Amino acid sequence: MNRQTKLAILADAAKYDASCASSGGERRDSLGGRGIGSTEGSGICHSYAPDGRCISLLKILLTNFCRYDCLYCVNRVSSNVPRARFSVHEVVDLTLDFYRRNCIEGLFLSSGIIRDPDYTMEQVVEVARQLRKVHDFRGYIHLKTIPDASPELLRRAGLYADRLSINVELPTLQGLQQLAPEKDATAIRRSMARIAIHIDDAQQAQREQRASTAKSLPQSRPRRAEAPRFAAGGQSTQMIVGADDADDRTILATSALLYGSYRLRRVYYSAFSPIPDASRSLPLAAPPLIREHRLYQADWLMRHYGFAHDEIVPSAQGGMLSLHVDPKLAWALAHRERFPVDLNRAPRELLLRVPGLGVRTVERLLAARRVRRLRSDDLRQLRLPLRKIMPFVVLADHRPGKVLQPQAVAVSVTAAAMAVPRQSSLFDELPSASASASHSLPLASVVP
Prior knowledge:
alpha/beta
């Protein structure tokens, strides 16, 4: 089988893995003729990292042969799909060739399990080792680790990779036992704990290095030995959504546990996709993609907005997030007693709970109100969604009233949130400031 055919098979087999953002890695470059690659540049980009940078990764499997028979996986041992396998040298050569052609800036490498976990993990680690040590590759490397691999192989993987990840696969132990009985949930959590310890140890060594005083001979430049680095981009994981009967409340509870126990950088959610010759234990249809989107929004609220996992999903909705409005707006509509919020006096924690206000916007508002009182024009100049914000806030020139009409606000704001987006034309006229102000008046005056 030629290399192009292998690439077509193994790149397609890797498309179900969502955890491939390159943010958080150590910044390296090849300026001055040192090495090859960079974690900062952008080539022909196909996705965006959470920090806004365009990224492009060669995302492939080492092989899609696998000894496991996970019912939800298209590469399971009983699946009738074309099989292929790369050698270590082929993956190294592909990565370097694609980088030299400005097609990628890094590598995301996963693999099916062949022979045994240690053999597979050794092959994956060897790819990263050759890129770093033999070819001085300074681009981004993300390795999908094998939970049952030896601790030494996990340690070596972190020395060469910017990020490591281990998939927990499903939100519950019952789901994993039902759909992937050969996988060990205890081994998965144990490996995640080991990686977390290695990351903590490396970070502590770097802090101690920065705090220490370098000693040198007279008239010589002081230099410290570099502290060992381990997966500078942290670790992440992925959960399949919709393959079992776990609801959104359970999924978010599992994510919160993983964030708290292993200090994960990200939890990725992948909507289940029906596969050929599927088991009867699997659903016939995929869940709506908007459910995956709502879970990402809820995850963002937990990580950046101070929400607890058990307060995001309303109990009245049977453990599921609303598909019609985003979780933050749904929470605000369910807790009308917390609003309106005075933008000139409220603490940061409460401002973050106002629908339509993001983290950066809140920081700007806090800085601005130190010198003057905030008014409606300030929000308008920030190009914020006034129809979403105004029913929930008090400003120097705006007050929706002490007793809002919850039903009217819910209907109006929900209708705006559910509006079908329309692609703007090049010849559309931009609304004037006065038109924008008058457009927001109906919501600003929802007062009895």
